[in-house]
Specification:
Mean pLDDT: 80
CATH architecture of the largest domain: Up-down Bundle
Order of helices and strands: HHEEHHHHHEHHHHEEH
Number of helices: 12
Transmembrane segments: 26-52, 64-87, 99-125, 146-169, 209-233, 254-280, 286-309
Shape: globular
Strand content: 5-15%
Protein name: (pine wood nematode) hypothetical protein
CATH superfamily of the largest domain: Rhodopsin 7-helix transmembrane proteins
Structural class: mainly alpha
Pfam family, one: 7TM_GPCR_Srh
Number of domains: 2
CATH topology of the largest domain: Rhopdopsin 7-helix transmembrane proteins
Organism: Bursaphelenchus xylophilus
Strand order of the largest sheet: 1-2-3
Largest sheet: 3 strands, antiparallel
Radius of gyration: 29 Å
InterPro entries: 7TM_GPCR_serpentine_rcpt_Srh (IPR019422), Nematode_rcpt-like_serp_H (IPR053220)
CATH class of the largest domain: Mainly Alpha
Low-confidence stretches: 330-371
Amino acid sequence: MGIFLNESDIPSAELLHFYVVFENTALGITVIMVPFTILVMVFTSNSVINAYRLLLINELSWSLVLDITAALIGAVSLFPLPCYYGVSVTSALSHTQQLINFVVGIGVLIMKDFSIFYQLEYILVKSLAMDSKIRTLFQIVPKSGVVLIHLGIIVSVLGAVLGPIIYYLPNQGEQKRLFISLDPFVGKLYEDHPDIICFIDGENTAKALIVGFIALSATPFIGLVFLIIMYNSMHQSNGSTHTYRLQKMLFRSLVFQLIAFTFLLCLPVMMLMSALLFQLRDGPTITVICFCFVLMHTPIDCFMILYFIKPYRIVVAHLLKVLQTAAGDAVWLKTGVHVLKGPLGDETEMDIGWVEWGTVADVADDGRRCM
C-alpha cells in the first residue's frame, strides 16, 4: 500500500481504453461541429445579430483549441500528487514541451471563460435602458478604449492565474526522486510511464492553484448575476416588440449555454482542482471521468447556439430538409439487352444501356409491372 497512491487508484485498462476512444470520438465530433456552426453563422445574413455572431465565433474558436489541446494530452492525473501522464500523442514529447502544452492549455481555458463572459456583457449592455449610466459610459468611451480595458482585464487575469503556476513549476528530476523516496509505488509508476510530468512543486500546491480555483468557482455565480440583471432590464425596457423578442431569444440561448458551461466545464475542472487541493484519493479515476465531461461541452454548446438562435435554426432546418429530400430520391440505371441476327444467322447480343431518373416509388412500380 502506497503513501500517496495504491494500485487500485489507477484506472483499469478497460477504463483507459474507453477514455481514449471517447476522447477521439468527442474530438472528431467537435472538429466537425465547430466549423459547421461557424459556417452557418457566417452565411446567415442577419444584420441584427452580426456583432454578436463575432463573439460566438470567438468562443467556439477557443473551445476548439481547448478540446484539441486536452485530447492530445489525454491526461491521467496522479492526484494527490501534482503530476500526470498522458495516454495520447503528446506523451512522446519532451518534459519541457509537455509543460509548455500544459500552461498553454490553462491559458486557453481562461480565454474560453472570457469569451463566454463577453457574450453576457454584450447582451447585458444591449438590454439596458438607453439612459442607463452603464450604457451611457460605454457610449462615451471610444471603442479603442473599450478594447484596451478588456485587454487589460485579460492580461491581469492571465497573469494572476498563470503566474503562480509558472513560478512553481518544479524540477522534474528532483520531484521524481522525492516522490519515489516517499512512496515506492510511485517508482513503479515512473517505470510504467516515464513521461510523467509534475506541474507544481508538491509543497506549494495550494499557493499555485488557489487563485485559479477561486476565479473558476466564482464564474458561474458571476454569470448568474449577469442573467438576473439582464432579465430585469429586459422587462423594464421600453423598446419595441421586435427588440424584446430578439433579447429574449439571445437570453434563452445564454441561459442554456451557461448551464452547459457550468455542468460540463466549470464543475469538472473544479473537481479536478479539489482532488489536488484537498488530497482526495482516486484522483486518477476522477481525472478520467471529469475530462470526459469537459470534452462533451463544445458539441453541446454548438447545438445550443444552432437551436436557440432562430436565424441559425432556420438555416439548419432548411439544410436538413434539403438533405432529406436528396436522400429520398434514387438514381437508377436500367440496362437492356437486344438480340440481333447476324449475317450467318447467328444471334449476337448487344448491350444497349440507357439511364432513367426517377424516385424509389418509380422503381417499385416497374417491379409490380414486371410481375
